[in-house]
Amino acid sequence: LVLALALVGCGTKTASTSEEKEVKPIIIKFSHVVTPDTPKGKAALKFKELAEQKTNGRVKVEVYPSSQLYGDKEELEACQSGNVQIIAPSVTKLVGLNPKFQYTDLPFLFPNNEAVYKFFASDAMKGLMNSLDKYNLQGLAVWPNGFKQFTNNKRPLITPDDFKGLKFRTQAGKVLEAQFKALGAGSATIPFGETYAALQQGTVDGQENTFNNIDTQKYQEIQKYLTVSNHGRIDYMIIVNKSFWSGLEPDIRKALDESMAEATKFAVEQADILDQKSKENLKNGGKLQFTELTPDQLAAFQKAMQPVYDEFESVISKELIDAAIKAGQ
Ligand code: LMR
């Protein structure tokens, strides 16, 4: 009896202390597939730092890089069901929710970063973000990475003909498949976390990615040739679980929105810096043979890839394509 009374007393005392309520922070899990030293990896850590600071520790952000928590195949579902609160997939990977996100894969749609950033701020992008609502997902921001380049381990890729018979890894979707088909090449969709092994084992001969993703994934160890083509983009939609986000206290939401806005600015700065830095690393690292295409050689690729526009204009919509073109003018 004495023991029972002591236990009851102890329990009552603990439950009534005010500290107990204070020390329970809201946990936000932020999962992504790249390394911490990429624009996305760094901006995720910046968001964590700002969010924890601005909420005085009432929010704790746990960042899981390198597909540690979820890979390409699982992360969307995990976010919809609330097992993770924030993910940042490249927009192509949203193709299953809205095929219009494949705008980003239309060959040579954007001439430079400025055009891409203008498009991010457009109504067309707002419309794409809002299309996620019905999946219990909310788009918060768009973060850039950069333009894609081709790598492979068979031969230098200088003309469209050089692609014939090769097989490339793609992120997702039919537009990328059609792009390689237009060049006479095959393709296979492979999750980012499995791509190094697929290249190493020869499941595919090559892949396309940004300088920084190639560099931080160390593809130069298992690929021989890189062609600077800037033919497509990798950029990210920062997505939260909608019920979680709308259930937050207004002051917490405000602090997190501000943190996201600052982290987005930081992501843009880092994307430019890391793109250049990784380009230099790859060019001067002595592992890859680097090909920079002349304007005439680039024009030959543009012509060879034109059928992709004819095939996908109705899927992506003329309005969206026109908005992207306008951003580049
Ligand atoms: C890829 O799968 O190649 C990229 O989307 C990875 C990433 O998140 O940058």
TrEMBL record:
Any Pfam family from its record, for instance, is: DctP
From the broadest rank down, the organism's phylogenetic lineage runs: Bacteria, Bacillati, Bacillota, Clostridia, Eubacteriales
- Keywords, sorted A to Z: Receptor, Signal, Transport
Q: Which GO terms describe its biological process?
A: C4-dicarboxylate transport; transmembrane transport
Is this entry keyworded Signal?
yes
Which protein are we looking at?
Tripartite ATP-independent periplasmic transporter solute receptor, DctP family
Might you report a single GO cellular component term? outer membrane-bounded periplasmic space
**What InterPro entries does its record include?**
DctP_fam, TRAP_DctP, TRAP_DctP_sf
The record's similarity note reads:
Belongs to the bacterial solute-binding protein 7 family.
